[in-house]
Amino acid sequence: MAQKKNIIIILLLLFGFISLYFNIHLFNENKSIKSMVGRDYFNQHAEANSIVNVVVFEKKVSELLDGDVKSYDVYRTRVNSVVSNIKGSVGGYYNRIALSLDEIASLYEKGDIKAIEVKAEYTKSKIIVMNEIYSKMEETLGLEDVKWYGELTNSNSEINNFINDKFEFFNK
Amino acid sequence: METYSINDVRYLNSGSDTFVLVMSRFIKNLVGGNRLKKNLISIIVIMLLVSSLGMNYHFFNETSSFKNMIGLKYRLNHEEVMWNFEVEVFDHVLKQLRQGDEVQFARYYVKVSSLAASHRLGNVDNFYVILLPPLNEISINYAEDDMDALDKNAEIYIERLKITNDVLAKLEETLGEASNKEWYNQLSNINSELNSYISERWSQEFQGQGGRG
Q1: A22: nearest CA in chain B?
Q2: What are the tens digits of pLDDT across the range B126-143?
């Protein structure tokens, strides 16, 4: 009887160790995927911020007004490409900006310079907020991949609350 | 009266003796008794086992939802790349460039380079990287008005584009019907069948001229 119980305990312990081993394995795999996805997020946001940027935007618009359609068009393509990778609310905000850029291009084709200036001013105010959001991300998330993943996927995190607070501004 | 009470006390005393004896045995059993100790250990072990299994289940689910998510991204990337890397698209752009429409070409160049930078697809990356130098050359040739060199570079580019498309077709053939998780497994594992095929193909095509612009 005692023998039987001992065997059962040993078996349970064995299962326990195997299960623990799997836990460790899965935990590590999980963490490495999180850090991979987090690094992707970081790269995407950093790249988007370097392109959707007040300084770059103003330069491109002034080039367009000087008649350099090519430079502006390339900029627009680049913005579209970069922005399409970004998901979530921030991706939505970026898409609004991309649409504004398209509108500016079609206004240029119509030759409505006055409207371009108005639209550019409007777009600029949105870009400033995007840059603010990025600075906030840099400040709170730093260079930690897993943190980028964790905070950006958690809809109730500090950074996501900050982002969601801008929703009205982008949709008014 | 007195005797009776003495008897009564004696009786009580012997009763409490028995009670103390039974209790002390019970406590001894509880603390040091073999059977109870073993039961306690098994209960703790079982609890640990169950919680450990629960954690396993949680991690497993989380990991497989990650894999699905990333696999889906690979699939979408693949479709976007296939679409943009069609030879016809480039032919059209090149035709426009020869007619003096620089904008189309510039847009194409930006599109291809940003796809190459952001779209990870296992070892297919290598093929993207090798697409960029001839494109860059073409824009330089155009700026310098060197049409012969432009034609030559366009030829190199189209050749590389065709090889890339071959590889992408192989991807489509292998994974077209597969689940998102399979996309993840095949493309994120460097040693997978598909990735081995791709890197073999790459060294076949570009061995020795790898870094050439």
Answers
A1: B56
A2: 788 888 899 999 989 998
Q: Measured between CB atoms, which of B42, B52, B66 is closest to A23?
A: B52
Q: Where do we find the tokens 């090519």?
A: A70
Helix residue ranges, H only, A52-112: 54-65, 69-83, 88-110
Query: CA-to-CA distance for B113 and B107, rounded, in angstroms?
Result: 10
- What single letter denotes the amino acid at residue A21? Y
**Dist CA A26 CA A33 (whole Å):** 10
| Residues A97/A89, Cβ–Cβ less than 8 Å | no
Whole-number Å distance between alpha carbons of B54 and B37 = 26
Which residue type does A52 have?
V
Token pair of A123 as six digits: 């777009």
Distance of CA A117 to the CA centre of its chain: 28
- Say whether B99 sits in a helix, a strand or coil: coil
B123 - beta bridge partners?
B121
For residues A94 and A100, what is the distance between their CA atoms, to the nearest angstrom?
Answer: 10
Three-state DSSP class for residue A98: helix
Residue type at B166 in one-letter notation: D
Beta pairing partners, B121? B123
- pTM higher than 0.95 for the full model? no
Pick the closest to residue B117 from B153, B87, B77 (CA basis). B77
Distance from CA of B96 to the nearest CA of A (A): 14
pLDDT digits (tens, 9 = 90+) for B33-67: 566 777 787 788 788 888 989 999 999 999 999 89
Quickly tell me which residue has 């988007």 as its tokens: A48
- Give residue B16's pLDDT band: very low, low, confident or very high (50, 70, 90): low
